[in-house]
């Protein structure tokens, strides 16, 4: 295995010069830099990233913990987080927690072992104390944990927009289908807005919660089937994600309920595939790219020991398509 001495000898420079090239420190001429890189390639030299990070006390690696990259919202969010992290000189270690506390703790241990400079927490199974004891720069997505900076969309306003639209379209009995309210998420404000708006406009309503442990399409379909069996008069549904909205469309097709004639549907997120379903999903657009960009900006500032705003709420927008 090649060493720094081997690289220095092959390039005709000192070990210090090779180290400066690897760590991008001090002035190095393009000729010298290219010579070092050429010898590294010839000798198949691979720098020890962990050792380098310990030496300069910075790894330029960010840890990202999400429930699952298979969910379209988290998939798109992860894309933008990686994009803006890379543009800021950082690489991302992606961890899927599957909403399992044990797995999430193990990933945090792994990220610490890899000397990450900061962590983005978009999975929400751990207790508050677990977040506060990380002793690392942390930014959360869609969860408020004491003084840890957080980023979310305007969930309450989005819920109000969705519910008012269903009622304005003539729905007489509406339902909300979303994730478990036992999870302490800012997204629960969508449900709060749904309840308050329905009560304020004297419309019958009910709520259906999915399981606390995941994003299971089979479970969505079973819950929706049961909803229509018990309450066939439901004529409007606010789904807390476009994935749930798509499942509602699928079930409606199966049981011969026409969308939007028999049932009107509003989703949330406006992931890219929302406009590809038939019918196209009316939804509340979260600014996913801007959320990802802001998360990285906040985390980089924290890593650089700069002050940031803790509560960061980005605006949402109603996108009306064919399901209403």
UniProtKB/TrEMBL annotation:
Keyword entries, A-Z: DNA-binding, Repressor, Transcription, Transcription regulation
Gene3D superfamilies with a match to the protein in the record: 3.40.50.2300, lambda repressor-like DNA-binding domains
GO MF annotation, one: transcription cis-regulatory region binding
The keyword Transcription regulation appears for this protein: yes
SMART domains: HTH_LACI (SM00354)
Domain of life: Bacteria
Family matches, as SUPFAM superfamilies: lambda repressor-like DNA-binding domains (SSF47413), Periplasmic binding protein-like I (SSF53822)
Domain HTH lacI-type as annotated: residue spans: 2-56
InterPro entries: HTH_LacI (IPR000843), LacI/GalR-like_sensor (IPR046335), Lambda_DNA-bd_dom_sf (IPR010982), Peripla_BP_I (IPR028082)
Database matches in PANTHER family: LACI-RELATED TRANSCRIPTIONAL REPRESSOR (PTHR30146), RIBOSE OPERON REPRESSOR (PTHR30146:SF95)
Name this protein carries in UniProt: LacI family DNA-binding transcriptional regulator
Organism expressing this protein natively: Iocasia fonsfrigidae
Lineage: Bacteria, Bacillati, Bacillota, Clostridia, Halanaerobiales
